[in-house]
Amino acid sequence: MKKLFNIIIAGALATVSLTSCQRDLTSLNEDPKHPTVLPSQNLLAMGQQQFFYYTFTGSVNFNNFRFFVQQWAETTYTDETNYDLITRNQPRNNWNRMFVYSLNNYETAKKNLAVELGNTEAVKENKWATLEISQIAVWETLVDTYGNIPYSQALQAADGQFAPAYDDAKTIYTDLLSRIDAAIAKIDDSEAGYSDGDLVYAGDMTKWKHFANAVKLRLAMNLADVDAATSKSAAEAAIASGVISSEDESYNLVFDGGTFSNPIYDDLVASGRNDFVPTEFILNKMNDAEDPRRGKWFTKASTKYKVQSVSSSGGNMVITFVNDEDNNVWEKEEYAKDMLAYYNDATTGKTILLGNITDNADDTITVISPNPDITVKNGDIISVVYYKGGVFGELNPFGSYSHMSAFFLGSDAPANLLSYTEVLFLKAEAAARGYSVGGSAESFYKAAIAASMSENGLSSDDADAYIAAHPYDAANWKKSIGGEAYIALFNRAFAAWNFTRRLDYPVLVNPADSQLDAVPTRMPYSDQEYVLNKTNVEAAASAIGGDKATTKLFWDVH
Fold first, then answer.
1. What is the tally of helices (H) and strands (E) in the chain?
2. What local confidence, expressed as pLDDT, does residue 336 receive?
3. Element (H, E) at 436
4. Sequence-distant (≥ 6) Cβ neighbours of residue 38 within 8 angstroms
5. What distance in Å separates the CA atoms of residue 8 and residue 19, rounded to the nearest whole number?
């Protein structure tokens, strides 16, 4: 998307062109090509690009959300999957990107909007609402990452406030809910907002309204176990006002694929490195469920094994592999459904399908109804092909495991931070808690799975078959909703992290070599805060029960 490049670069150039001389703002000789303030549309674009890129990134140097929910494993290092958050200063890097590069851009944009000419009152209000809602989304991400944070005194360095106090996270939640309502009240959806600079909704104020209510719904559901009355009231009001109602309204940013690429492309392709594979934790769940999304998201692993002996059992072929240090060693895979065996023809060099593997044990596989044209003998090579995830917290040789498919790897692929699928799962949870949200928990559960299948290019038949095989369980609704949301929100790790912390499903197991005593439930504060804002950060750490990655947020009470 060239617009992304042009607007952000223009903003950077405008910044360079600013001069320190005094100008008469009312002068008729004002040069519009050299503004005294950076246009708010450029600041909006820069804030959006930074927020999306650094919330969505899989880089080990930033938020590590994908490791917090154990959806990616590592192949080269194990520090991050064992929750080392110190060596690479991830808390500091994430903190600075959110406060300096995103929140501050939006805050400056608000100030500059106030003096910009050429806007009708309605358009100006819409633009202000766009900036406000964008900022609220960042605040929500920050408070759900760290807990208590600088808020009421934040972003006031221009006024001499360099050591802001930290606000109570619950108080911030209350204020964010009020701010959302106030922003929505200013929206006139018969008028446009930012026709340029808005890289998400291109000035469509109906979509901004629906997104604001979706953020309100997410805040509301996080409050469910600590303030049920507020949670119920806010959730019902958000849905009644109108939340994201289709994939077209999801909070997506599509990158231009050139100067500004999708961060997953940068992490997995442009880097030239092979540092990550999907975990066995998620792939075992999907294998066990025979989830059709596997074929969209992942490649199959293929490993060659040497045959030691072959026998027949009820028309099936039982193959025992050589188990020694000179060969790959087959070990039983508990959840590896849809495994295939291929015969490697030493004469022609071709690989030929032998058949489906119906059972496996240590050293042995059983091939059902094997290809009658193939004779397997001792010493032959068999390739076993299936979806195989890496072990979280351990090194996983890249060539031995499934990889993320091309589905995720486009340089111009979108980053999705709040999807229609997520909203439907939130509605399902709200209904399960007894809120009046226009449908039953089961109906929203089914709709959420169907939406996930659809957005991943699968058919309604695929969705129906999957739902029939995995029906909603009202008696264990947290497990039912939490487990399915975890799968559907693969590669949207921050959203998945909210579900795992709030519903405690699926149950994440701390790796054996973890540097923590449990799986992270928050990000520690930036180490720079202990240098620049020592008194306030220490007070905040004490207030939340200690500045540890395992300290739970105020709403995470189970």
1. 19, 12
2. 79
3. none
4. 11, 14, 15, 18, 108, 112
5. 20
Are 491 and 252 in contact by the 8 Å Cβ rule? The answer is no
Q: How far apart are CA 67 and CA 515, in angstroms?
A: 13
> C-alpha angle with apex 247: 244 to 252, nearest 5 degrees?
85
pLDDT digits (tens, 9 = 90+) for 427-474: 999 999 999 999 999 999 999 999 999 999 999 999 999 999 999 999
| Three-state secondary-structure class, residue 329 | coil
Q: Is 296 helix (H, G, I), strand (E, B) or coil?
A: helix
Q: Look at residues 338, 271, 246 and name the one whose alpha carbon lies nearest to residue 298.
A: 338
Are 241 and 159 contacting, i.e. CB atoms less than 8 angstroms apart? Answer: no
pLDDT digits (tens, 9 = 90+) for 505-548: 999 999 999 999 999 999 999 999 999 999 999 999 999 999 99
The confidence band for 11, taking pLDDT boundaries of 50, 70 and 90, is: low
Contacts 24+ apart (CB under 8 A), 428-432: 428/472, 428/481, 429/221, 429/224, 429/477, 429/481, 429/503, 430/217, 430/220, 430/221, 430/235, 430/236, 430/239, 432/474, 432/477, 432/478, 432/481
Distance CA 351, CA 547 (A): 55
DSSP-derived secondary structure letter, 298: B
Helix (H, G, I), strand (E, B), or coil: what is residue 119?
A: coil
Distance (Å) of CA 441 to CA 225, 228, 273, 445, 472: 18, 17, 43, 6, 8
150 cis-preceded (ω within 30 degrees of 0): no
Q: Measuring CA to CA, how many Å separate 137 from each of 334, 355, 525, 543?
A: 41, 50, 19, 24
pTM: 0.93
| Angle, helices 104-113/121-146, rounded to nearest 10 degrees | 160
User: Comparing C-alpha atoms, which of 434, 405, 3 is closest to residue 195?
Assistant: 3
The encoded tokens of residue 503 equal 């519903």
Instruction: Give the three-state DSSP class for 512.
Output: coil
DSSP letter for 23, please: -
Question: How far is it, in rounded angstroms, from Cα 120 to Cα 126?
Answer: 10
Do the beta carbons of residue 514 and residue 538 sit within 8 Å? no
Query: Which tokens belong to 328?
Result: 């790959």
How many Cβ atoms from other residues are within 10 Å of residue 364's Cβ?
16
Residue type, 315: G
CB 414, CB 264: distance < 8 Å: no
Report residue 37's pLDDT band, with 50, 70 and 90 as the boundaries.
confident
184 CB burial (10 A radius; 0-12, 13-18, 19+)? buried
Per-residue burial over 503-517, b if 16 or more Cβ lie within 10 Å, else e, is bebbebebbeebebe
